[in-house]
Design goal:
Elements lengths: L6 E3 L2 E3 L4 E2 L3 E2 L4 E3 L2 E3 L5 E3 L7 H12 L6 E3 L5 H4 L2 H7 L4 E4 L1 H11 L6 E3 L5 E3 L4 E6 L9 E5 L4 E3 L16 H13 L3 H12 L5 E3 L10 H12 L5 E9 L4 H15 L4 E5 L5 H10 E11 L2 E2 L1 H12 L6 E7 L6 H9 L6 E9 L5 H14 L2
Parallel strand pairs: 7-8, 8-9, 9-10, 14-15, 16-17, 16-18, 18-20, 20-21
Antiparallel strand pairs: 1-6, 2-5, 3-4, 6-7, 11-12, 12-13, 13-14, 18-19
The chain binds MU-OXO-diiron.
MU-OXO-diiron (FEO) binds next to helix 2.
Length: about 375
Amino acid sequence: MQITNEIKYVGVNDRTIDLFEGQYVVPNGVSYNSYVIMDDKIAVFDTVDKRKTEDWLSNVENVLGGKKPDYLVISHMEPDHSASIDAFLKKYPSATVVGNEKTFNIAERFFGDIFKNKLVVNEGEELSLGKHNLKFVFAPMVHWPEVMFTYETTEKVLFSADAFGKFGALDVDEEWACEARRYYFNIVGKYGATVQSVLKKAAALDIKIICPLHGPVLNENLEYYIGKYNIWSSYQPEDKGVLIAYASIYGNTAKAAEQLAELLREKGEKVAVADLARCDMAEAIEDAFRYDRLVTASVTYDGGLFPAMESFLSHLKAKNYQNRTVAFIENGSWAPMSGKLMRGFFDGMKNITVIDKLVTVKSAVKDDTKEELKQLAAELVK
Ligand code: FEO
């Protein structure tokens, strides 16, 4: 695939991986992107997951047309991009590996002492390939410490590492935002502050094309993608709406959650409902960040929270959830505790508004519960 006359795509699709990063379902697979710039000097950008080493090496060979690569630029050492470095160097031993000091610290932990020809670059340093010129822009903790973008100054192409990437193989026709948002919040979400710093650096560049490490190359309407990243990394809600996330054993807590959803929909609210024991947790996390309000509903279990709810709230905390309004529905047949426990998870999170109205379901939804749910719905739309 051609990005420009001299910049080629050599990445691969993976449609068979069961769990990306060992935990995320990817129903439409994922792509491991890699690029080549053909110039007086030839640079390859990143390798791919070891599941696809041979396919990738074959793509690289086809594009090189018998020539030898001069450089392998490493933007990120996570193994979905770095695992084929050793195979590449076995095939092209004269290539110089380009990275920063942290890149090589991590690379040597993975591969040992295989880097005979290496070029250690600093922030802002440039490397000429002939007509093309690479400028290295460090992006530490987006989402690993060694991450660096490369800006090609002639054709104005940003090689953006994981940033602007999405789940989904490239032969899938699907909306960018949904799977990019799920990717962002679950994988990069904790590091909003560092993403903001890098976006400021990127704003100083004239960018025509973004080449991420996953998902499609972006070559039009770039302000849309950058705008989404700005909203997500600043932890601002993207849409007005309510996520109701519930953990239920026998369906009574679920019933309360569904009734609240119905009441809110009647008021014209956009509502998403997640059954935390069954849904994709990553999707629930995504929706929690997408909307401005969150209601969690959990049964009390062993005097604590039902495990699926505990897991959901731990994820939110780990991803720096903030700037939202939250409310709770608890259930318990003898000593309901889950309201207090859920509320405790939000202590210490930034700028969380807690709605005082706590709906308590005592075993099953009855008329008095319905009344309480109406009151909660009214509070949520205020
Ligand atoms: Fe796609 Fe952080 O690796």
